[in-house]
Amino acid sequence: MNALTLPDIAAQASRQALPLDWVGMCGIALPILIDGQRLTATADAGVSLDDGTARGIHMSRLYLALEMLDQQPLTPALLRTVLQRFLDSHEGLSNNAYLRIHTDLLLKRSALVSPLAGWKGYPVSIEARLEKQMFHVELKIDVTYSSTCPCSAALARQLIQQQFLEDFGNTPLQHEDVLTWLGSANGIVATPHSQRSNAQLLIELDGDQPSLPITELIDNVEAALGTAVQTAVKRADEQAFALANGQNLMFCEDAARRLNLALKRSDAVKAFHLKVIHAGSLHAHDAVAESRWTRNPA
């Protein structure tokens, strides 16, 4: 008996001739290699369907091309190669190719003072596009930090001054009396409010970069803010964290400006859109600031 040829429905003509912008798959599980770490990731892979008369694309060809990602470190060059394979396998059907990768990058972070250390996760998305042979690669990175309100810090200091006057008035003071008072409950009668905050970074990279500078960008962002959230801590680390917050008072506007300047200093960054969110602790709403920048061509 002759073997029957399996039907290829995707190769059949569409009943409605109409091109489509994006066709593919979302949520494909795969491992990737970034900065020496093998990470669990999900990928969204697709191409444009420019031949409006075609019924569909060959999704299995996209899936098979993704196998390249678990064999070598993830770089802009590798992303471009995968996208080109998407197009080569859909010659005559597609002009544009797209790939989005979502993962959590784990970085070992040392405590501020003690010898402790712990792992911290950073949500990262990598989006690559090959549109009319023009290559684009973008990073989405979330960085969590602490922010202490300058206004509430000033109000707290004023209340501490008032409490000092109430407790001592015109009483002659000795150094030991002041030191004891500062260590008492009255010495910290009011505290400024702080909140867990989040920086959402959308960064367009120069496509010719040899690597994805994800760790470098995160390090620069945390250094600019000065109050990255911690992992394992002892009391000495908690005290150092309180000191860091006191020395880095910031509104959301301050944080956005710090990050703007920090990202501009990276030669790998072509453009960015950043958004900082200071979750309300005084209010039921959040404080938000955004900033955009594009490098002028030389």
UniProtKB/TrEMBL annotation:
Keywords from the named record: Hydrolase
GO BP terms: tetrahydrofolate biosynthetic process
Catalytic activities: GTP + H2O = 7,8-dihydroneopterin 3'-triphosphate + formate + H(+)
Enzyme class: hydrolase
Its EC number(s): 3.5.4.16
Hydrolase recorded as keyword: yes
Domain of life: Bacteria
GO molecular function: GTP cyclohydrolase I activity
Site (May be catalytically important): C149
Pathway named in the protein's UniProt entry: Cofactor biosynthesis; 7,8-dihydroneopterin triphosphate biosynthesis; 7,8-dihydroneopterin triphosphate from GTP: step 1/1
HAMAP family, per database record: GTP_cyclohydrol_B (MF_01527_B)
Function text: Converts GTP to 7,8-dihydroneopterin triphosphate.
Family: Belongs to the GTP cyclohydrolase IV family.
Protein's UniProt name: GTP cyclohydrolase FolE2
Top-level taxonomy: Bacteria, Pseudomonadati, Pseudomonadota, Gammaproteobacteria, Pseudomonadales
Gene: folE2
